């Protein structure tokens, strides 16, 4: 029964730094918990700047350091996403505002749009864009995603 699967879409501005890290982290956690087949997991961008691109090399290196691989290619969030995903989890207030605007233009949007950081036990609500930063900024994003995804998965198990 495919309809019993839960679904989550992780979103940031360009879909090359934060959201592919969140997607890869959540996939790994769901796989380790033997529930990955119960989920549809993806990520996307509010912008169309990087469509088709691989994630940022620094993000890929950070994931690799933690034993995680991803083959994700950047894509923009579509109207269809609001109809098919249960949860759309984004990284900052700007993403949240863009997504809510888009959702308002979609009839019967079912997605619950939230900040991924709202699941952080350390209460760091915003996951800052590491694009103009350094390796440690990607590591911070990774650690925030681990904390948030863990709680999100526990609440949806």
UniProtKB/TrEMBL annotation:
Question: What is its subcellular localisation?
Answer: Cytoplasm
InterPro entries, per the entry: LMW_PTPase (IPR050438), Ptyr_pPase (IPR023485), Ptyr_pPase_sf (IPR036196), Tyr_Pase_low_mol_wt_mml (IPR002115), Tyr_phospatase_low_mol_wt (IPR017867)
Keyword Protein biosynthesis (UniProt): no
Q: Which GO terms describe its cellular component?
A: cytoplasm
SMART domains, sorted: LMWPc
List its EC numbers.
3.1.3.2, 3.1.3.48
One GO MF term attached to the UniProt entry:
acid phosphatase activity
Q: Which Gene3D superfamilies match?
A: 3.40.50.2300
Pfam families named in the record: LMWPc
Enumerate the PANTHER family for this protein.
LOW MOLECULAR WEIGHT PHOSPHOTYROSINE PROTEIN PHOSPHATASE, LOW MOLECULAR WEIGHT PROTEIN TYROSINE PHOSPHATASE
Protein name per Swiss-Prot or TrEMBL: Low molecular weight phosphotyrosine protein phosphatase
Taxonomic lineage from the root: Eukaryota, Metazoa, Chordata, Craniata, Vertebrata
């Amino acid at each position: 029964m495919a309809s019993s699967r839960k679904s989550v879409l992780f979103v940031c501005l360009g879909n090359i730094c934060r959201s592919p890290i969140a997607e890869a982290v959540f996939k790994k956690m769901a796989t380790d918990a033997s529930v990955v087949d119960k989920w549809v997991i993806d990520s996307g961008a509010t912008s169309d700047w990087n469509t088709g691109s691989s994630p940022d090399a620094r993000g890929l290196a950070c994931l690799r350091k933690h034993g995680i691989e991803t083959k994700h290619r950047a894509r923009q969030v579509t109207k269809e996403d609001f109809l098919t995903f249960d949860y759309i989890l984004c990284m900052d207030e700007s993403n949240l505002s863009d997504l809510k605007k888009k959702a308002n233009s979609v009839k019967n949007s079912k997605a619950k749009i939230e900040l991924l950081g709202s699941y952080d036990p350390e209460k760091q609500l915003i996951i800052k864009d590491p694009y103009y930063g350094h390796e440690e900024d990607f590591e911070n994003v990774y650690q925030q995603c681990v904390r948030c995804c863990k709680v999100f998965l526990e609440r949806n198990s």
